[in-house]
Specification:
Elements lengths: L8 H17 L8 H5 L1 E10 L11 E9 L4 E10 L5 E15 L4 E2 L4 H9 L12
Antiparallel strand pairs: 1-4, 2-3, 3-4, 4-5
Length: 134
């Protein structure tokens, strides 16, 4: 928390990483994406702060999806939000991350495998729609 009781900006990036790992390791509809959960490096983060998220005991929702898949990188999008009882979305943050698979032992990036592409394709929303508005 910052001095005003808001979630610190750096904490948001941790939320994004946790959601990404959870999506690729736990919620992937087919196996083959395990290496993408942690065997990647961040090329770029873009973060848009929409409104402050203040301390509370209730969890916040993080939606994640893939917007682009290339030969050796992929882009994920995120929204951190609350859903009201009527389905109304209160968005706190929108973000995107460009990631590349990485061979840490050889200290070099690598291409996305066919199995990994299949996993990523299942989460693909290339037109920019949010995962929750499908």
């Amino acid at each position: 928390m910052d001095s005003l009781g808001h979630v610190n900006n750096v904490v948001y990036v941790d939320y994004l990483q946790e959601a990404r790992v959870d999506m690729l390791r736990v919620h992937a509809p087919v196996s083959g994406g395990e290496e993408l959960a942690e065997g990647t490096v961040v090329v770029r983060h873009e973060v848009e702060f929409v409104r402050p998220l203040v301390f509370r005991f209730e969890p916040v929702r993080v939606e994640t999806w893939v917007t682009r898949i290339r030969a050796a990188s992929f882009t994920m999008a995120y929204e951190i939000l609350d859903l009201g009882p009527d389905g109304e979305r209160t968005v706190y943050l929108r973000a995107s991350t460009v990631l590349t698979p990485y061979v840490f032992a050889a200290e070099r990036p690598r291409r996305i495998s066919a199995e990994e592409r299949e996993v990523l394709d299942r989460f693909l929303e290339p037109d920019g729609t949010t995962a929750g508005s499908r």
